[in-house]
Amino acid sequence: MGRYLITSALPYINGIKHLGNLAGSMLPADVHARFRRMQGHEVLFICATDEHGTPAELGALEAGLDVRSYCDQQHDLQRDVCARFGLSFDWFGRSSSRQNRELTQHFAERLEEAGLIEERTTPQVYSIDDRRFLPDRYVEGTCPRCGYESARGDQCDNCGALLDPVDLIRPRSKISGSGRLEVRDTTHLFLLQDRMAERIRAWVDAAQEWPPLARSIAYKWLDEGLQPRAITRDLDWGVPVTKNGRPRPGFEDKVFYVWFDAPIEYIAATAEWADATGAEWRRWWLMPEGGDDVTYVQFMGKDNVAFHTVSFPVTLFGSGEPWKLVDRLKALNWVTWYGGKFSTSERRGVFMDQALDLLPADYWRWRLMANAPENADSAFTWSDFQNGVNADLVNVLGNFVNRVVRFGEARFESVVPDGGTPGPLELSLFEELDSHLRALTEHHDAMEFRRAAAETRAIWAAGNQYLQRAAPWSAIGADAPAAACSLRTALNLACLGARVSAPFLPYTARTILDAFGVADRPLRWPTAAAAVLLDELPRGQPVAPLPLLFRRIEDTEIADWSARFGGEE
RNA sequence: GGGCCCGUAGUUCAGCUGGUUAGAACACGCCGCUCAUAACGGUGUAGUCGCAGGUUCGAAUCCUGCCGGGCCUACCA
Length: 569
Description:
Elements lengths: L2 E6 L10 H20 L3 E8 L4 H10 L3 H18 L6 E4 L3 H16 L3 E11 L4 E2 L5 E4 L8 E2 L16 E5 L7 E11 L5 H10 L5 H13 L4 E2 L1 E2 L8 E2 L2 E2 L7 E2 L1 H20 L4 H4 L8 E8 L3 H14 L9 E5 L2 E3 L2 E2 L10 H7 L2 H10 L7 E3 L1 H31 L11 H22 L3 H22 L1 H7 L1 H22 L4 H10 L14 H4 L21 H11 L4
Parallel strand pairs: 1-2, 1-15, 2-3, 15-16, 17-19
Antiparallel strand pairs: 4-5, 4-9, 6-7, 6-8, 9-10, 11-14, 12-13, 17-18
Helix pairs in contact: 2-3, 4-7, 5-6, 5-9, 6-9, 7-9, 11-12, 12-14, 12-16, 13-14, 14-16, 15-16, 16-17
This protein binds one RNA strand through helix 2, helix 6, strand 10, helix 7 and helix 9.
């Protein structure tokens, strides 16, 4: 058995994430982690909140809290909603942890020893009334090209022009609206990424199995030439800048840039986990200490690819230490919301907590993964969601399990019946399932979620198909043993359908398997031949009554939700 | 501006390195079943594969141009 280190891109601390964030990284990572655990691999699934940066400071300000308390509160909210969504992190850490502070400082100092750090002084917009430096996009003004009045300092949303904050006409702070801005010189640490370009390129060249999206983004950056990149900021909230373990002179009021410390949190969160559980984290992250037999899989949205394929590897390689780098990388596109993006800041779309108020996690998990944005952005619409849930979960899986159980109650006293032997119908079912199982395992292995979902569904559908052909309700009068064999096979098939659905539908799978008295925890991924799998339940074993697994989503609900959340006018 | 991706049945999508009548799911029609949440099964209708050229014995598949949509472009994370 192998060892899998799985990370999901870190959700930013501000606010509970929307379904787009969930579908783009945390959820596919969870499905994969569950699959690998079921296969019996040793899995460490890591996520964390990304807590530093300007938005966190501003969020705290708005909430009337100090930044630490604000992050404490937001972290707890996110951890709770992730847990309720069934995201099975082995550890959900915080980039503001002591461990991350220490590792971030460690990396920076190592990079400096390697000659990859340089102090540079650059002009930066300073807001006198906000008493802070402003990131480019926190400066607003009139676009010099098209005259749009709310252009941001980095780009005009109206005409698309790439801007510098000083280009803006009548610039003002996006935070306070104040126009009292000035340009001040400020000194920052720059990471000389350009010196690592060849190393990174060779590494990307070798990463043949990355998805095209990831490779093309990485190559684009490399082809344009890696630039030295500022890795510190003029902020209060973040990892303090040190030199030889002491506050770095001239940097007392500065911290590391959030994008420098955030990926390091993957490692630090592992250290948090280790400290909390008494485990050892180096065997996951340092090549000589066990990392060389770890398969490291990263999940992220497409916006994050450059940081994972270029920036973070520069940090790791540049340290000169034998850190583990990503082996397999899954980059997803966006789930879109009625022609636009989900937006946390504008509260556009459905958020994880709201989703759970409407329906249990498995409904969302299924639809988001069956329609995962793998090759392109995929649209979330209420009617799609309704249709997908009703057709797949209610009609196919829920109905199949229900009719099998109910028939067993009516005719076999809710016991796995003995008697009868498989005939031609069963043999052809075995053959079909062997092929489905092979394909399904391959799709999970390749992290192709839509295909895996479609194959999972095909297994459920095979159940309804089989039942219809076997028609034990007709056979039972004339040939009781044949009916017994049919029901036994169908009961086992319901179990199998539940088992293979577990990565997508962890709650439902457990509910079904508990009712059938299946005891293995954690669940095993089926590897045996279908002929064996469909006769696993001990004959005579009782089957507990099962309530309906899924309820139909009604048109009236869709109308109501559309009105409440927008979209589908 | 530069780069990348996408445009295939009403809808969401498969179609790898070009090769018999272009596939699936959903929706829709018809038939069947009654164990089941009017769910299930069978079957059928449905596509000039964005447009225009080109290469080829042969292109949805390769090349060029155009149209339409999306994404990335380094100080939001």
